[in-house]
Amino acid sequence: MQQNEQLIQQEKYLRLLSEKYPTPEAVSERLIHLEARLTLPKEVEHFLSDLHGEYGTFSHILNNCSGVIREKVAYVFGDRMDEEEQAEFCTLLYYPVEKLESLENEGRTVPKWYVETLGKLLELAKVMSYKYPLAKISELIPTAFTSVIVEMMNTRPDEDPAQFAYHKRLLDSIVEVGSAPSFICVFAELIKRLAVGWIHIVGDFFDRGSRPDAILDKVIDYPSLDIQWGNHDILWMGAACGSDACIANVVRNNLRYNNTEVLENGYGIGLRSLTLWAARQYPDEAPIKAAERAISIIMFKLEGKIIRRHPEFSMDERVLLDAVDYEKGTVRIDGKDYAMNQRVFPTIDPENPLKLSQEEEDIVKELRASFLASEPLRRHVEFLYRRGSVYTCCNGNLLFHACVPMNEDGSFTKVTVGGGDYSGRAYFDFVDAAARRAWTERDKILLDYMWYFWCGRESVFSGREFKTFERMFVDDESTWEEPDDPYFQFINDADACGRVLKEFGLDPEKGHIINGHVPVKKGESPVKSGGKAIVIDGGFCHAYHKKTGISGFTLISNSRGLRLLAHQHVADVRTALRENRDIESVSETVELQSYSLTVADTDKGKAIREEMEDLRALLIAYRSGVIHHA
Ligand SMILES: O=P(O)(O)OC[C@H]1O[C@](O)(COP(=O)(O)O)[C@@H](O)[C@@H]1O
Ligand SMILES: [Mn+2]
What we know:
- By secondary structure, the protein is α/β, with parallel strands linked by helices.
- The chain contains 27 helices and 17 strands.
- The chain has a 7-stranded mixed sheet. A 5-stranded mixed sheet has the order 8-9-12-14-13, with helices on one face. It has a 3-stranded antiparallel sheet with strand order 4-5-6, with no helix packed on it.
- Bound molecules: 1,6-di-O-phosphono-beta-D-fructofuranose and manganese (II) ion.
- It comes from Schwartzia succinivorans DSM 10502.
């Protein structure tokens, strides 16, 4: 009976498939393409993390594809162009519009230069397209001039004099009709798309740096990208869902880093009411500082209320507004009194420290209305939901921002949340579903979870106990230390890494864990347990450069293995253009295979094989007459 049911289902499915491939010839054609595709080299994957609003660095690394472009230029033109010429050519690829403008000012953009440059771009694009089937290359070609570019990509000037003449005519015509600058831009784009097959962003677009909005605008239309949410993303997502506590945290972070432009101009969220009111509360402070103090108190009040509503968060001792002696100016932490660096709390009623005043209520209400009304924020958050998730398993690797909560003995922590107990992968799945429901349902409890996901000790995005209150009000730095999850130790233990990979259904021998979140300090290696875990929060974040010493780590996975890049100093765009300067990067091989991986070895390969099985079944059904074909 059950078997019968299965057969009926399969036939239904094959009938649907036959709509797409209505003849045996169509099926065979597809099978041939798929079979051949399996033999092509694996696409390049590019991993980045903890961008923290650093648009300049991010877009440079995206433009130079973590050094892949420079390598290809050296490979193709190494014997024909000196270093200076190669560097200039790379700059043209990274910043075509700007570079063309400066070359034009120097009077160098003569027809001969255009023809030569187009010839080189075409040559490079051809070499770099060897990894892709024709259909895929057509998809990658930007929409402008598509038919001409397809034609150019298929000329064979070295093989035949007629082809040579044809090729030359194409290039000359482009220059003659004045389209060369546009073609250069399109080729630069195509070459970048050919260089990197897929991008993974392992969390934290937001906070600290000034232009997370510009980063999101840049990647929003990227066809080949996935995102693993970081705690800062969850915070902004929670704010966009309407969580007051998340909103207060976002506003505070922005004021703290003097980034109010992102909110005010990028997202159209005004801070005027808050700033004016705060200036009255703290007349001796500079306006930004006053606003930061005022929103911080609002934030601690809102957080205190959430903690009281959710005993399961086990954060009771974090309600520090309740532990302050407002007369003495001390706060009791872990049974010990500490002097506070602020004595004046004009917005707190010591009898009821968590109560928001009417003015505070009004400010929160106004901010919430602006967050909910912001169209650009809605667009960006919708994109984060659409392309993001808590974790991704891709080609045997496990990607997530922070941690799988663990006990001291290395077992997965059982976390009580949403009326159930969850650990390991089931906990990740719960969190993923809860975060999505917060956006669609906006239920109050789910909004509280979003706040917990941002900063909770057992949150998969955080894994540490935030000491925001102490960092703000207590000078004794011994109170600032943020205890973190044993996971962050266990990634140094290959067995524990293996258990994590296995928990997510991956091969512990072959897979890697790829995380962000914890800045890699100077002198520390991002490669843990011999490469089983790699932490690529290398510090795009300017504010953390003292700690990290460099401008970021990125990871590249190609057909030969894994390679880590430590980016030293990123030249700003102007210097890059003037001096043809690139990022100085140091490359470290994490893993090198003796053989080359092909598409057959990837997740895509698995999907292709499954599709081929279905197609073969359809072919049999056509031949046996079970399904009639056109
Ligand atoms: O995910 P990240 O980037 O580590 O951010 C969270 C950390 O930021 C903090 O809120 C401190 O922020 P600042 O460095 O901006 O003061 C810590 O309390 C917390 O551990
Ligand atoms: Mn983080």
